[in-house]
Each structure stands twice: as structure tokens, then as C-alpha cells.
Amino acid sequence: MPFSALGLPPSLIQALAEQKYSEPYPIQKEAIPAILKRRDILGIAQTGSGKTASYVLPILQNLQGNTASKNRHVKVLVLVPTRELAAQVREVFYVFGTNLPQKIKSLAVYGGVSINPQMMALQGVNVLVATPGRLIELVESNAVHLSEIDTLVLDEADKMLNLGFKEEMQKIFAMLPKKRQNLLFSATLSEDLEGLKQLVLRDPVVIKIEEEKNNIDLISQLGYFVSEEKKGPLLRYLIKHNAMKQVLVFTSSSYKADNVADKLRKNGIDASAMHGKKSQEARTEALSRFKKGTLRVLVTTDLLSRGIDIKFLPHVINYELPRSPKDYIHRIGRTGRAESPGDAFSFITPEDQHHFKIIQKKMGKWVTMIDSEGLDLQGI
Ligand code: AMP
């Protein structure tokens, strides 16, 4: 089925061709016609499913001839949990919004950076992508008004709830017009999310996209038995011996991420850490260098791993295991996408062994284990 069968206009079809999107993904086939008809949506889908374009494209079309009459009155509000996702979603609005007969101005706003440039940039904005806290600050300082919102999108709603944004979200809902279109996307359906769904959605079209099960089979997984002290040398050994050019390393804390990146740099391996305690500039810079392939190693924590879409990532290393098996699957799912197979290595200390067994059981797959004692880690 081509994109043109979904009711999108020629200018967007052309932009899709330029972006080399040849056919709609399953979520796009279902969501685009429904959003064009102004229906509410509940989309249960992961990053990688194509969920962003599934709402960006029809929203852009719905906005044609329908932008707000007053300045600083946005028509579309997209709430997201992290700054990275905000920038990523805004980019998709920008890419598809440029060729339209009526240009659509979009902006991403988030905390951790100075508010003044964002206040100024809000002039003439139609689509606002925001993290909850910063949005409230901007509304309270009259830099933006929400009284003309037609469409509300909650992207990665489960993560917003997990990060404790519930109260802020409720505060924002109370500022919106009652009559509006609501699009809620979430990777999981929890009890909390059920409440949000009841609160926000009216007679939604429900779209459930299962995570690609066979994705796991594309990933070659290995576990390395290693002591805590030998993790650094083992990491350098794997990077060097496998001639890894682009590797994502996971740790369980910001402190550890910094520590691992520092050690790699001291040993002549280009590495940077990206986590919630870094400045926004440093995070954006590290991610953009990594995506371009000019940064060899990015060390990060689970908090920032979701929602970051990096195409064709060949290597993932769990320097420390995540607590939940779901996070493990999510982490290794960063590699082995589509036609590009990848590998995922996990460092297993004696204390981790039991936990790693639980992870494997939940995943339904056993991982081959290698004893790092047998590797020559001297002088690495
Ligand atoms: P998302 O789930 O929205 O983060 O999208 C995952 C990735 O798929 C992004 O890099 C998109 O650029 C890409 N993508 C989305 N829809 C399509 C499509 N129909 N054809 C090809 N690539 C797509």
C-alpha cells in the first residue's frame, strides 16, 4: 500500500519520497487515516515502529488552513518525557513541514537550558514539542498560550508517568480546551496508563504494534564472566579486537558512565558520556557526534536510552546489567535492527550471575558465556 492511499496530500508524498520512506509502516497505515478524520488514538508501540511519522504527517495536513489567529497560541502540543525525544520529534515536524503550501513552524522546548531564547522563539509557533516542566514555566510567564490547542499528543506516555510527571501533566490538561483531539502513544499498558487513558481519550482507535520478536534473533549475544576490576581492560579489549567503530555502552549510574568514558579516553579511545547530569549542550553534542559516526564510544544510562533512535548501531555493551529484563531487551534492541545484524555483549560479575539467568529466562533465549580469564587483557 503506498502512502498516497492514506489520504495525504502530494506535498507530503513528495517529502516522504525524499526521505526514502517507500511504504507506510503498520502503525502508519492505521493511524494516519484515523488522525486525518480527527479521531483519538491509543497507540501501543515502541520506538522504531514509526510512531512519530504516524502522527506528524496527518497533524501537518490537518493544520493546513487551520493555524491559530493569535500569536503565541499554538494549535498542536506534543508532550514528551525527555529533551532528546523533544528534539527528535521536532526534527520530524521540521523535515516534513517544509514543503507544505502553508509552512508550519515547530519548536522544541525543554528544561536544563536557558528559558529566554525559547520564549523569543515561540513567536509564530504552530506546533510545540515540550517536556512538562518547562512548558508550565513558559505558560506561567505568558510566553505561550494553550487555549487554542486542537490536538494533544502524549508520546512515550508510560515513561512520562515513570519519571513522575503525572501532576505536571494534569496541570497542563487543565489548561487545554475541553474539545480537542488526543493521541496517546506508549510502549506498555500499565495500570497508571489505564487511568491516563480514561482521563484523556474519547472513543479512541486502538492500535497495538507488537515488538518484532525475531529482532532478538538478529542479535548475536555473548556474556563475559569478569571481575569488577577487570571490566575496564575487557571493555578496551573488545573494542580493539573487534575493531568497533560505533559502540553504545550502558552503565547503571551517571557517575559510572563518566568514569568509564574518562578511562577510555585516557587509554586513547574516543568516548563520551551522556546522562541526565550532563548539560544539554554536552548531551546534544555527544549524541550528534555519535550518530554521525565521529564519536567511537557513547556511554549512557537507561534513562536516556529510550526514544533515541540510532540507525544501524552495530554494537551494544552492558558494562553493568540493568535491573529489569525489559530494559535488557530494550538495550540490546538498539542493535540488530532490520537488515543490519549486530552484537550485544554483557559483563557478568559473580554477583550478577543469578540475575542474568532471570533475564535470559524472561527473554526466552540462552546466551553463550565466555570466561574473560582466558583472554589476554594485559597491557590493553
Ligand atoms: P520512530 O518509531 O518514530 O522513532 O521511527 C523509527 C525510525 O524509522 C526513524 O528513523 C524513521 O525515520 C524511520 N521510519 C519511520 N517510518 C518509516 C517508513 N515508512 N519507511 C522508512 N523509514 C521509516
Could you explain how this protein is built, in words?
With 380 residues, the chain is an alpha/beta fold. It has two domains: 3-208, 3-Layer(aba) Sandwich (Rossmann fold), CATH 3.40.50; 213-374, Rossmann fold, CATH 3.40.50.300. It has helices at residues 10-18, 26-36, 51-63, 83-97, 115-121, 132-140, 157-162, 166-173, 191-200, 215-218, 231-241, 254-266, 280-292, 302-305, 325-332, 353-363; strands at 41-44, 76-79, 106-109, 127-130, 151-154, 181-186, 205-208, 219-225, 247-250, 271-274, 297-300, 315-318, 342-348, 368-371. A seven-stranded parallel sheet has the order 3-4-2-5-6-1-7, with helices on both faces. A seven-stranded parallel sheet has the order 10-11-9-12-13-8-14, with helices on both faces. Helix 15 crosses helix 16 (353-363). The N and C termini lie far apart (53 Å). The chain binds adenosine monophosphate (AMP). Adenosine monophosphate is lined by residues 21, 23-25, 28, 47-53, 309, 311.
Number of helix segments?
16
Strand order across the largest sheet? 3-4-2-5-6-1-7
Q: Kindly state the mean pLDDT as a whole number?
A: 91
- Subunit arrangement of the protein: single chain
The count of β-strands is: 14
CATH superfamily of the largest domain: P-loop containing nucleotide triphosphate hydrolases
Query: What is the CATH first-level class name of the largest domain?
Result: Alpha Beta
Instruction: Assign the structural class, choosing from mainly alpha, mainly beta, alpha/beta, alpha+beta, or little secondary structure.
Output: alpha/beta
Radius of gyration: 22 Å
Q: How can the largest sheet be summarized?
A: 7 strands, parallel
The percentage helix is: 40-55%
